[in-house]
Amino acid sequence: MDRAQAFVLALAAALAGGCARPARVVVGSKNFTEQVLLGEIAAQQIENRLGIAVQRKLDLGGTLLAHEALVRGSLDLYPEYTGTALTAILKRPPGGGAGEVFEQVRAAYQKRWRLRWLAPLGFNDTFAMMIRGAEARRGQLTTLSEAAGARAWRIGGGYEFRQRPDGLDGLLRAYGLRTEGQPVAMDLGLLYTALEKHNVDMIAANSTDGLAAVRDVAILRDDRHYFPPYECALVVRERILEEYPRLAGALGELSGKFSDATMRKLNYQVDGEHRPVPQVARQFLRETLGQLR
Fold it and tell me: Is 12 a residue whose pLDDT tops 60?
């Protein structure tokens, strides 16, 4: 069911006096392909394994909006990244290995908000600074340190990247990167086109972007380890887990099932092949967990 159909059904229920049974589990996501796809996979997993109604609030917005919705209870779960939680939500400095960062955010979320981090899904979606492949080959640039010494760069990134404590300002300081003009903020879906058309020379993209696997781009290695780990996991309200005791087990079946390569493939099926998100999610669950729907 697409969002237009869902809206029509919800409106009809409201006009009928709310006779329809309301959704019992609300799954959300942020506003980019990977998040929407993971939200849809989680929603279908709940429907398939538990047979209960799911309301989708996908493509909501940025990190803070999704987190506040979860804390308020207008969402029951959504996918989040450990490094994002550490720096953007908990306001702690980046640092530590993947296991240490996961334990920090798990304990803090439980104590402050009674939110549970389930075991990671299996991939690390770190920020990836990319330049055009031809320029990387011509200048023999493979690391951010090498790029910093080569020239000044016109940098493009998402709106959050300029504001985050693990974002642009810290990156410029860590590497002494010089910028040509003001960095350009844009929708994440426009980054690769802007780079390809020479509107910018370096973009702050993501390591699991599907387009990174098929476009002529070079990912510059973060040789000074500026970015923290960004393991992805589902964050769930304790109250909904108590209401549905089988929910944690059903969602736990997704843990460890996504490698970086798997996530790039899934993202490309949506962004590159333009397949509908529900279809991609359904195929993944069928092939990975043996679900028939």
Answer: no
For residue 189, what pLDDT band results from cuts at 50, 70 and 90? confident
Alpha helices in 118-196 (DSSP H): 133-139, 144-150, 168-175, 191-196
The count of other CB atoms within 10 Å of the CB of residue 176 is 10
| Dihedral sign, Cα of residue 230, residue 233, residue 92, residue 187 | positive
* Cα 49 to chain centroid, rounded: 24
Which residues lie across from 27 on neighbouring strands?
A: 56, 77
How many residues are there in the chain? 293
Residue with tokens 């869902």: 6
Distance from C-alpha of 154 to C-alpha of 152, rounded to nearest angstrom: 7
CA distance 274 to 270: 5
In 3D space, the residue among 47, 111, 32 whose CA is nearest the CA of residue 79 turns out to be 32
Q: Pick from 98, 57, 95, 65: which is nearest to 81 by CA?
A: 98
CA dist 50 and 292 (Å) reads 14
The percent helix, strand, coil of the chain (3-state, each to 5) is: 45, 15, 35
pLDDT > 70 fraction of the chain, expressed in percent and rounded? 91
Helix, strand, or coil (residue 156): strand
Rounded to two decimals, the pTM is 0.81
Strand 77-81 vs strand 232-237: parallel, antiparallel, or unpaired? antiparallel
d(CA 34, CA 57): 14
Q: Which residues contact 100 (CB under 8 A, 6 or more apart)?
A: none
Domains of the chain: 3-124+231-289 (3.40.190.10), 127-219 (3.40.190.120)
